[in-house]
Amino acid sequence: MSRILYPTDEVAQQLCIGMTTAKALIKSGELRSVKIGRSRRVPADALREYVQQLDAEQNGEESHGDRAAHPEAA
Predict the structure, then answer these.
(1) H or E stretch including 69?
(2) Farthest-apart Cα atoms in the chain, separation
(3) Rounded to an integer, what distance in angstroms lies between the CA atom of residue 68 and that of residue 56?
């Protein structure tokens, strides 16, 4: 079974950012999370959505799967 939730420290590792930045992204709502008891967890699909959003913002909307227009990106 693949992981569906990640703790903040693993989110930071996955995104190659610091813990402070990871916590700030969660607190601001830029990175979706859920609370279980006192713990905050980030769904795996929220990580993918966040990276896709960054990619779209920085590289244009065509980067969402249109690799034919940019074969060097594949």
Answers:
(1) none
(2) 46
(3) 16
Report the C-alpha gap between 58 and 50 in whole angstroms. 12
What residues make up the domain containing 28? 5-59
Residue 18 lies in a domain: yes
Q: Is 73 a domain residue?
A: no
Non-local CB neighbours of 42 within 8 Å, separated by 6+ positions: 5, 6, 7, 8, 11, 26, 31, 32, 33, 34
Domain count within the chain: 1
The pTM of this model reads 0.76
pLDDT in tens, 12-57: 999 999 999 999 999 999 999 999 999 999 999 999 999 999 999 9
